Amino acid sequence: MTQKHKNIWISAGEMSGDMHAANLIRALQTQDCGITCSGVGGPDMRSAGFNALFRVEDLSVMGITEVLGHLPRILSMLRSIRRTLRQMRPDAVVLVDAPSFNFRIARYARELGIPVFYYISPKIWAWRTGRIRFIRSHVHKVISILPFEVDFYRSHGMEIEYVGNPLVDMVNWDEIDAMTPLPQRIGLLPGSRKKEITSLMPQFAVAAEIMHRRLPGLEFHCVRAPGITEDALRRLWQTDVPLHMHAPDNRYSFMRSCNMLIAASGTVTLESALLGTPTLVTYKVSPLSFAVGKRLVRVPYVSLPNLVMQREVFPELLQENADGAVLARHALAWLEHPEQMSAVRAQLATLRTMLGAPGAPARAAGIILKALGTAA
Q1: Tens digit of pLDDT for each residue in 158-212?
Q2: What φ, ψ does residue 141 adopt, rounded to 5°?
Q3: How far apart are CA 142 and CA 160, in angstroms?
Q4: How does 348-366 read in b/e, with b if 16+ C-beta sit within 10 Å?
Q5: What pLDDT sits at residue 152?
Q6: Radius of gyration of the chain (CA)
């Protein structure tokens, strides 16, 4: 009897998970050429042959008040997803980060008896640790990409496998290691969500104006995230200081070419750390979101490089410190004292070895397919 090809539902609830899910899809298809993948995805997943029944671009919000403003649309999408899961009955559900959204899908899958895998596990070690009970009862296995997560999940009785970090696979290391940063180039990465971009980009402009007055030779370069237009970013750049815009393609080479970066907190800061580029980490949400988060967060840092290395390698300039004058002051301290940036680069050299060997997506795919009985 011919074996029925498996259908896997994958849900990337945020743009930051889209690229990781895309590489997982490619690994699944390499190991089982007949497998089909459908669900919630973005442009990277679609380019990998994913059947995006729902678009992750419609979910790119962050913070309590921000989510509340989009709640009717999100709830409508979740109702449609529930109906679709009931009709399709996929062989497995793979969730990628975004617990506030994906926990609903985990509940739907459990009702239907579909095994759930969590790839890029939710950061419950940072806040709302009580949600471990939900994961324990709804998730078959957690597939971790951060080394410090393993002890946390195992201490709570969860089955977890650490596969290494998929970012290691996404970098052409020979090309990156051959590059020398340009001393006058400053990179700006204001994020992928509209709310964070509108909060941060004007402050990046203020910082650039202050920095340019002190060091006129500086060049400011911005990488736009997928789905974000150049016009939208330039409208928020309220200064005469020239801004060079870059598409998201080949962003690793661009980031490596910069002397330093100013970036919204998120996956991009782990990317910049792997590339060895000193980065100021910044973020700003609504006062209510920040007040609630401050009471709930249980870790000393918000950026992944600092969490992995267990010390503040990258300065974290959050909320009222996500201010143009403050950003400029920290940036100029680095630029006018290059030995400080050299010290940061020396610390970052150890990070690459801490995130595992290449092959994380393939190892994750193997775990899923083995559980479904289709692994070679």
Answers
A1: 889 999 999 998 889 999 999 999 999 999 999 988 888 999 999 999 999 999 9
A2: -155, 140
A3: 5
A4: beebbeebbeeebbbbbbb
A5: 85
A6: 21
Adjacent-strand bridge partners of 219: 185
| 8 Å CB contact between 23 and 169 | yes
Which tens digit of pLDDT belongs to each residue from 110-133? 999 999 999 988 877 766 677 889
> Residue 64's pLDDT band (boundaries 50, 70, 90)?
very low
Residue 268 to residue 255: CA distance in whole angstroms: 10
CA distance 317 to 106: 34
Question: What pLDDT does residue 148 have?
Answer: 84
Domain map (residue ranges) of the chain: 7-164+359-372, 173-354
What pairs with residue 94 in β-bridges?
10, 117
Q: Which fold has domain 7-164+359-372?
A: Rossmann fold (3.40.50)
Provide CB contacts within 8 A for 5, sequence distance 6+. Answer: 32, 34, 35, 36
The confidence score (pLDDT) of residue 131 equals: 84
CATH of 173-354, one of 3.40.50.2000, 3.10.50.40, 3.40.50.150, 2.40.50.180: 3.40.50.2000
One-letter-per-residue 3-state SS of 112-125: CCCCEEEECCCCCC
Q: How far apart are CA 192 and CA 229, in angstroms?
A: 11
Strand order from edge to edge, sheet including 36-41: 51-55, 36-41, 7-12, 92-96, 116-119, 141-144, 160-162
Same fold, 7-164+359-372 and 173-354: yes
18-44 per-residue burial string, b: 16 or more CB within 10 A, e: under 16: bbbbbbbbbbbbebbeebbbbbbbbbb
Region 267-280 average pLDDT: 95
